[in-house]
Design brief:
The chain is of the alpha/beta class. It has 9 helices and 9 strands. The chain has a 7-stranded mixed beta sheet with strand order 5-4-3-6-7-9-8. The radius of gyration is 18 Å and the shape is globular.
Amino acid sequence: MCSTDSNGRRQFANLILFSEIQIMLASFRHSIADTRLFRGLYRFIYTRNSDINQFVMENTEIVSDNTLTPEIRLSLFTPKCRFWQARPDTWPFSDPYWAIYWPGGQALSRYLLDNPEVSRGKKVLDLGSGCGASAIAAKMCSAAHVVANDIDTVAAVAIQLNCEFNNLEPIPCVTDNLIGSEPEHWDLILLGDMFYDEDLADSLHTWLQMCIKVHNTQVYIGDPGRAEFENHRIKNFIKLLAQYTLPESVREENYGLTSSTVWLYKPDV
């Protein structure tokens, strides 16, 4: 991955500054009445963080083929990228989960594109957004307002770049951990590949129940059949919506998983 030269240290320092600004914006966003002003602030921040933008662009490849959503272009890790085979300790930031288009997110994004009425005119939260594909799919389907949420500030940069690659205005990205927070009035919450840890699954189950109870939020889950999801009690509260066969390259990158499924989460609240 990246050597610890002066350029790498400068990029890391910029990321720290970026994190602080993101936190400030996240706390400020509730008091902004003019959405255009909010989007303008984000555009300003991402422009000022050109070093991080450049780092992401230099170390990823823009991909659309060999996924379930060829309509969406994403900046991802591929075998052509220098970090594909490099030592993890040479990457200067947190683990780049945003650089992989995970199979649950692929299925969820495909489902949104195939069923645009699900997000059309809705206020949508893409929780654990990663590369931002599901948020982008919702935006492409005329959602009224879309917010991406990922605790990795580099993911926030990547999501904005991916919006540009798809000729979309920047999607606001909140980097607070929203799980367990006071629920906002979301019409739709999207979760792709979030059930990879038992404790996290428990926290999500509790918080999503609250969101549904307080605001009657609809919750859609994309998951390829990970054990933490298949063996969790949440399976008692979901309805199968669609299942997709994964492209061969996606299967190889995900230990032979052959398909990915979209579920509607309907707990008895």
